[in-house]
Amino acid sequence: PQGSEKAKAFVHAFLKRSMPKMKDEAIQDMLTRKAVVLEHYPKKKTKQKRKKTKGFTAKQRRELRLFEIEPEQQRQGLKCLTCVVKYAIFLPLHELWKQYIRDLCHGLKPDAQPHMIQSKLLKADLHGAIVTVTKSKCPSYVGITGIILQEFKHVFKIITKEDKLKVVPKLNNVFSLELDGFISYIYGSKFLLRASERSAKKFKLKGTIDL
């Protein structure tokens, strides 16, 4: 048909313009194979190397004494801390903690199984919880009640209602925790872990507890 001849002529002319260096025989060969591939050579983009900012090494930090605090500054910091910390400031934190535990335990209902709640509390974050030292080898710790501000591997930092910051060791102490009528006991000797480590630890529900 006349239309197909016009199409061939158009393609031939198009290829001739697009690839002027190609001979007519090569163009005709491409047309007979009924596959036209236009040669295109894009320019290679040169990647710019990013310069990495180098920080101080551990040895350089020690030599520069970046993280060392003078003893006078430490004493001043402790004085400021005891002046600023107030029990009433952290009551909203305690309310948030109670709601967090209720959500974690799907509501503390009367028919809830105690051992299931106990297992969740053992792995829960205790920052904001109100605890009481019920037993201790050191009688001066017994009766201390307050909100947990910080939990470390070996100690709890507790703010009491008298606005005093107490550092209570976990070892040889038993803590009680009450929420919505449910009372749980924390045996500090079996609790010598950081808060981040407790979430992955498997606790035994049965066993002997010694102070």
Automatic annotation (TrEMBL):
Entry GO CC: nucleolus; ribonuclease MRP complex; ribonuclease P complex
Source domain of life: Eukaryota
Coiled coil: none
Location(s), subcellular: Nucleus, Nucleolus
Alphabetized Gene3D superfamilies for the sequence: Ribonuclease P/MRP, subunit p29
Main location: nucleus
A GO MF label: ribonuclease P RNA binding
One Pfam family recorded for the sequence: RNase_P-MRP_p29
Subunit: Component of nuclear RNase P and RNase MRP ribonucleoproteins. RNase P consists of a catalytic RNA moiety and 10 different protein chains; POP1, POP4, POP5, POP7, RPP14, RPP21, RPP25, RPP30, RPP38 and RPP40. Within the RNase P complex, POP1, POP7 and RPP25 form the 'finger' subcomplex, POP5, RPP14, RPP40 and homodimeric RPP30 form the 'palm' subcomplex, and RPP21, POP4 and RPP38 form the 'wrist' subcomplex. All subunits of the RNase P complex interact with the catalytic RNA. Several subunits of RNase P are also part of the RNase MRP complex.
Family indicated by similarity: Belongs to the eukaryotic/archaeal RNase P protein component 1 family.
Name of this protein: Ribonuclease P protein subunit p29
